[in-house]
Design a protein that fits this description.
- It is a single chain.
- Helix content is about 15%, strand content about 40%.
- It has about 190 residues and is of the alpha+beta class.
- The protein has two domains: about 1-95, no CATH class; about 100-190, Lipocalin.
- The strands form two sheets. Strands 5-6-7-8-9-10-11-12 form an eight-stranded antiparallel β-barrel.
- The N and C termini lie far apart (about 45 Å).
- InterPro entries: Beta-lactam/transpept-like.
- It comes from Chitinophaga sancti.
- GO terms for molecular function: hydrolase activity.
Length: about 190
């Protein structure tokens, strides 16, 4: 069924070319009308992901090459490394390193301060996740867990022990949310200060 939908989008079978062009044009930041729009390996990439408790999915299209990649997961994980490697294979690029093997990247304290603050799962929750800077090192403290240093390994992506921490920016470039990937689960927390 999804391949029929992808084919219909490719061939313009249910929307005019003008409508498709509008859908796939950036409107706010990297987002168009229902799609994230960017490029990878010099190719237009159109994608979107979604999640509900216990499930995660992602759909990535490279319309120039008639490629559609779909990943479905019942472990709150999109399998990002697997998807990255599929794209690398398709476009004859080196495979991505395992997340645990990525080297730590240094950054100035002035940039580290952007990540600090208090985050909550929901506004009504009293539980807060804290990210703070101490002696030029970023730390994260999730209640019920030991405080962990945050080590930058990609733009806005950190390692904290075995967890992956990804900070999301709004269309003005300010951090508004943090995603915590740990033990096959994902938790999203919103920055409150």
């Amino acid at each position: 069924m999804i391949s029929l939908w992808h084919t219909a989008l490719q061939k313009g079978k249910f929307l005019s070319k003008r409508s498709l062009a509008a859908i796939f044009t950036k409107d706010r930041g990297p987002y168009g009308y229902g799609w994230f729009i960017d490029s990878l390996y010099g190719k237009l990439r159109i994608s979107h992901d979604g999640k509900i408790a216990g499930y995660k999915n992602i759909l990535i299209r490279f319309p120039q090459d008639d490629i559609c990649i779909i990943a479905l997961s019942n472990a709150n994980s999109s399998g990002g490394d697997v998807i990255d490697n599929i794209m690398s294979i398709l476009y004859h690029q080196p495979l991505a390193r395992a997340f645990a093997d990525l080297p730590v990247i240094n950054m100035p304290d002035s940039i580290k301060k952007e990540f600090t603050g208090l985050y909550k799962f929901r506004k009504e929750d009293s539980t807060q996740v804290q990210v703070h800077l101490q002696d030029s090192n970023l730390y994260i403290h999730i209640p019920g867990n030991k405080e962990q240093p945050l080590q930058l390994v990609k733009r806005n992506v950190f390692r904290a022990g075995s967890a992956r921490i990804e900070f999301m920016r709004n269309d003005k470039g300010a951090i508004w949310q943090m995603l915590v990937y740990s033990h096959g689960e994902i938790m999203g927390v919103v920055k409150i200060q």
